[in-house]
Amino acid sequence: MPSEPRIPMEPTLEELSAYLDHELDDGAKARVAEHVAGCADCKMRLDGLRQTAYAIRALPMETPPRTFTVPATSRRSVRWAPVAGWLGGVAAAMLVIVFGVMHLSLPPLGMGTAGAAHPVSGGLGQGAAPYAQGAPYRQVAPLEGSTRYAPDSALSASSSNSKTVMDAQSSSRSLTISTDAASYHASGVVTIHVTTKGLSTEEASSVRILLMRETGQGGYLVRLAAPSNAPAFPSDYQAAYSIPQMQLPAPVAGNYTLQVTVDTSDHSGLVAWLPLTITP
Amino acid sequence: MDDRDLVGRARRGDPEAFTQLIMQYQVPVYNMALRMVGRPDDAADIAQEAFTRAWEKIRTLRDAPFKSWLFQIAANLCYDHFRRGRRYGEMPDEETNKVIGLGIATPDPQERAEARERNRLVRESIEALDPDMRLAIVLRDVNGMAYDEIAGVLRVPLGTVKSRIARARAQVQEHLQQYPDFFPSTREDARAE
C-alpha cells in the first residue's frame, strides 16, 4: 500500500548554511531543497541566513593604507644564485632595489609607437619575453593623440569613478585617479585622468597604472604606460587606452581593478584603486 | 598567468613574479586581516608580515596552492596578534578614513549614513565572534573562498568548516536582528508579520 508523500527530514543549521553556499552534495542538496519548499519555518531560517551572508558580503573591500613590499633584509637572507646568474655583473647590484608593489622594476617608459601593445621584459636585466611565454605583464601605451596635459577638470568632476588618496603625513599631498566611466565594452577605450598634488616632480614621475584582474585561479595585470613625451613629467594628465590593445586573456569581460601607485620620498607611497567592469 | 607560473618563478628567485603575487593578493589578504583584527594599521602590519614570510619561505612551498598557503600564514599572524593580548581594534569610520573615495556611487547623505551604520553593525557582529568562527566566516563571506579552500587554510576537516560558518552566521544573524530598522529581513519572524 503506497504511503503518503513525506517531507524530508528537517535540515540542520549546517546543512542550510552549506546549501546557501552550494556546498552540499547532490543528494543532500535535493533533500534540503525539497524540505524547504514545503516548510515555511525552514524557508524563513534559510532566508535569514541568506540575508546575513549578504550583509557581510556587502562590507566594502577596503583599500590598504599602504603598499606592501619585501624588506631588503629579508631578501638578502634568501640565497638564490640563479638570480645573480641571469642578472650578471653590474645588474646584480639591482637586487638591492626595493621591488615591492611600490618598486616594480620596469624598463624606461616611452615604449615607441603610440598605441602599440608591448610586452614588458622580465625586468632586472632579463631579456624581453613575449607575454604568452611568461613575461610578467604587458605594457600598453596611450592612444596616439589622446594625451592631454593639465586637462580641464571636467572628467574628474563628472566622473562616477574617481578616487583620491591623501598622504597620511600631509593632507596637502594627494593622488587622484578618475576614469570616464566605470564600465566599458570590450572593444572600448578607457580614458584615465591622473592628478597629483603637493608631490615633487620625481615623486609624480614614479606613477604607475596597472589594470589587474584576479580570476580565482590567480590573476594577471597590464601596465598602462604614462605619456612619455612630456618635457617634465606632468602632475596632471589625461590619456586614453584601447582595451583591444591590452590583449587581455579571455574571457575579457569581467571585473577589473585599476591601480595607480606613486612612490614618495618617505617610501610610504600612495596607492589608489578603482573598480572597472568590461562587458562582452 | 596562474599562480603556479608565478610561484614557480618566485621559487627560482624571480622578484617580479613575487611582486605580482603581492599585487594580486594584497587587497584580499589585507581585508581578511582587517576583518579579523579590526584596526587598519594592525591589518596592514599583518599583511606585510605575511608577504615577507611567504617570500622567505616560498622555496618550501611544494604542491599546496599558494593562495591557501598565503592565507594560512596571514591567519596564523592574526592568531598571534590575539595571543599577544592585542584586542580587536576599532575600524575608523569611513568619513575619517584617510582613503577617501570621491564621487563613487554617491547616494544621498541619508542613504550613506544608513549604509555606514549597517556596515558598522555588521563589523560589530563579526567582532563578537570567537576567532575561529570569525576566520571561517571572513574567508567565506569576505574573501569568497570555497569550503575546501577554507579547510586548507584552517587545516581542519570540511565538516568543521561547515559547522563554524553556520554557527558564525547564526550568531551574526542573532546580533543583527536586534536592529530591525537596518536589517528587517534577517528576522526569522519577519514573514509572520
Structure, explained:
The complex is a heterodimer of chains A (280) and B (193). Chain A is an alpha+beta fold. Chain A has two domains: 13-57, no CATH class; 72-279, Immunoglobulin-like. Chain A has nine helices and twelve strands. Chain A has helices at 13-20, 26-38, 40-57, 72-76, 81-87, 89-92, 154-158, 201-204, 243-246, and strands at residues 117-119, 138-140, 148-149, 161-166, 174-179, 183-185, 189-197, 208-214, 219-224, 236-242, 254-262, 270-279. In chain A, the strands form two sheets. In chain A, strands 1-2-9-8-11-12-6 form a seven-stranded mixed sheet. A five-stranded antiparallel sheet of chain A has the order 3-10-7-5-4. In chain A, helix 1 (13-20) packs across helix 3. With 193 residues, chain B is mainly α. Chain B has two domains: 3-83, Orthogonal Bundle (Rna Polymerase Sigma Factor, Chain: A); 109-192, Winged helix-like DNA-binding domain superfamily/Winged helix DNA-binding domain (Arc Repressor Mutant, subunit A, Orthogonal Bundle), CATH 1.10.10. Chain B is built from eight helices and one strand, in the order ααααβαααα. Chain B has helices spanning 3-11, 15-37, 40-57, 66-83, 109-127, 131-142, 147-154, 158-176, and one strand spanning 99-101. In chain B, helix 2 packs across helix 6 and helix 6 crosses helix 8. Chain B starts with a helix and ends in a 17-residue tail after the last helix. The model of chain B is unreliable at 94-106 (pLDDT under 50). Classes of the chains: A alpha+beta (280), B mainly alpha (193). At the A-B interface, helix 1, helix 3, strand 4, strand 8 and strand 9 of A face helix 1, helix 2, helix 3, strand 1 and helix 5 of B.
